[in-house]
Amino acid sequence: MSDEPFETSENVHRDRREHGGADAIHPDQDELDRRTEEERVEAGVDAYDPDEVPPATDEPLPTDVTQSEVYEEAKAELDREESEGEIYPLTDRHPFPPSHYDRS
Fold it and tell me: Which of 29, 34, 62, 102 is the most buried (most CB within 10 A)?
């Protein structure tokens, strides 16, 4: 424990007729949680306060791959190769995929 005085923003005025341990004013639980998280960050227990992290600003990834430019380019290339006879479905007549050793 530290010998430093505890700093608080709450103004609590005790009635001198009450017992020193009696708590007539109950602090707000949300305020206690916030202060606890601040102390955990200051002590190095937590790396950051999750409430102080800004929301992500990245745009969401596209969910439909077929709408991407890369997919459209690949499909156009496959369509071209198929129309020129460079690729064909595997059958008994053509059991292996075509090879293009002459192309590099």
Answer: 34
